[in-house]
UniProtKB/TrEMBL annotation:
Keyword set, alphabetical order: Signal
Domain of life: Bacteria
Signal sequence coordinates: 1-19
Name of the featured protein: Lipoprotein
Keyword Signal: yes
């Protein structure tokens, strides 16, 4: 009888231990959705309002969104190190699942670049930087590329 009791206790303990194990969550960039809310051209300047929405089960924190105009090359484009940082009404941008925020950009193209043909003003690139958070662990991430690609992927 003692052996049966020991076996049952061992089986229950194994079930409790294995039932409590959790699989760590992994950040997936497909859980971040971009939407262009507004774009205006006025007096040689461009303004953009871009919404970011999270469907990630993880908290996303310390988010920053940047915009730049790629440098034209004979065989394509290269990234531009000069970026415009998006403004938002939050000092630290944090999103939980289902939440969104907006970033606004002002790009004084004519004033800064004149009539430059070296930059692709029709296809701006964006870069979203931040941390995915699970418990107290924060893991940095970056999503970058052509704005139009992100908009078409997340309609």
């Amino acid at each position: 009888m003692k052996k049966l009791g020991l076996f049952l206790c061992s089986a229950m303990l194994f079930g409790v231990v294995s039932g409590c194990s959790t699989t760590p969550q992994i950040f997936d960039d497909k859980d971040v959705h971009f939407k262009l809310l507004n774009q205006q051209s006025m007096n040689g300047a461009e303004t953009y309002t871009i919404q970011i929405m999270s469907t990630s089960p993880m908290e996303l924190t310390h988010l920053s969104l940047y915009l730049d105009y790629p440098i034209k090359l004979q065989n394509g484009h290269e990234s531009n190190p000069f970026q415009i940082k998006g403004r938002t009404n939050q000092s630290i941008v944090t999103l939980d699942k289902g939440q969104s925020t907006q970033f606004t950009f002002y790009a004084p193209i004519k004033q800064v670049f004149g009539d430059s043909t070296l930059l692709d003003f029709n296809h701006p690139d964006i870069e979203l930087d931040g941390f995915s958070k699970e418990g107290s662990k924060e893991i940095p991430f970056e999503i970058a590329g052509d704005l139009s690609v992100f908009l078409s992927q997340h309609k």
